[in-house]
Amino acid sequence: MLTDPDKSVEMVLRGRGASLRLSIVRYQFPQITTDEYDANWLIIQGHASINDRSWTFRDPSLTTFEVRQLANWLERLERGESAEPHCDFIEPNLQFERTSDKAIRVSFALESAPPWAKPGESWSEHGFEVLIDKHLKNAAGQLRSQLQAFPERGDHSPG
Questions:
Q1: Are the CB atoms for 143 and 71 separated by under 8 Å?
Q2: What angle do CA 120, 25, 79 make, to 5 degrees?
Q3: pLDDT tens for residues 102-126?
């Protein structure tokens, strides 16, 4: 099922002088429905702003199960439950890292990095911190809302 990104609920994270809005645009390969990975790659659109500099990216950077993983991770942090220090993905475009008991860091690289980024810069060059509070639960809900239009597809049976 394809959706109009303008009608979807964006995931929004805000930090001091910075923000990220993420939307699922569509499946990368809508015609592939049986392969566990290719059937679940999503085109992700992001609008980021750090210190009055903004950029947009649009790339197949997350799978359906990675979006679900990120929503779960954000909810666990918001509830104060133990969670992995990083939420990592197959494509290293976005990184979410718990930096303390009170904050996470959202970082951008490769296709999601700002246009002024230089090749080879580390994750620490382009990112911002977000407080761990009720807004993480809202962001997780926004991700889950978007995922309703993009269910996991493919063969998930053990190989």
A1: yes
A2: 75
A3: 999 999 999 999 999 998 887 778 9
Integer angstrom CA distances of residue 92 from 75, 110, 141: 22, 7, 23
**Which residue's structure tokens are 């990120």?**
70
- Percent pLDDT > 90 in the chain is 84
Q: How many CA atoms lie within 13 A of 21 on its CB side?
A: 11
Look-up of token digits 């997780």: 140
Cα–Cα dist 13/106, whole Å: 9
The tokens describing 45, both together, are: 């659109």
In this predicted structure, the answer to whether residue 49 has a pLDDT above a threshold of 50 is yes
Structure token digits, residue 22: 């993420």
Contact 150, 27 (CB under 8 A): yes
H runs (alpha helix) in the chain: 64-78, 134-147
Q: What is the CA radius of gyration of the chain?
A: 15
Token pair, residue 84, equals: 């992995």
